[in-house]
Amino acid sequence: MIEIRHAGPDDGDALGEIHAAAWEAAYAPFFKPEFAARAVQSRRTRWHERIAEGRGTILLAAVDGRPLALSVFVPSATRPGLAEIHTFYGHPDGWGSGVAGALMTETLRRLRDGGYTRVHLWTLRDTPRSRRFYARSGFTESGAARPFDFGDGHPLDQVEYERAC
To answer: Which pTM value belongs to this model?
Structure first.
């Protein structure tokens, strides 16, 4: 059974584990091992603070009680009137389980209920798994691209996706 709910103050460790495991599987190969290890650790520990800041809506999806996916959405800072899915990660243990698709469906429903008609997001150009997932979820490339520096001084290319809510 998949349960999706707002993340609360006690969910920081679960969110951190999802983010770290997903980031390590999908992004760590792009970086030097030392930087990747620090980045994974940072993702494990930053979520308590992010929850406390209260910026955006953080949703947590669990399968049979185990947290396996997260999303964060905010009003877009660059595209007035649109929402932005700022963060969307699924733990590798949940890949193929349907939890990410269920979470995306619920994220889009909540955006519609919040009055948004369109949403956009950015993902790395060289992450075919995430790009396939967004395409299956009804997103299309907007044509926009940008470099993004994760902090190692070597920017990677991101592409923008968008869709109606």
So the answer is: 0.95
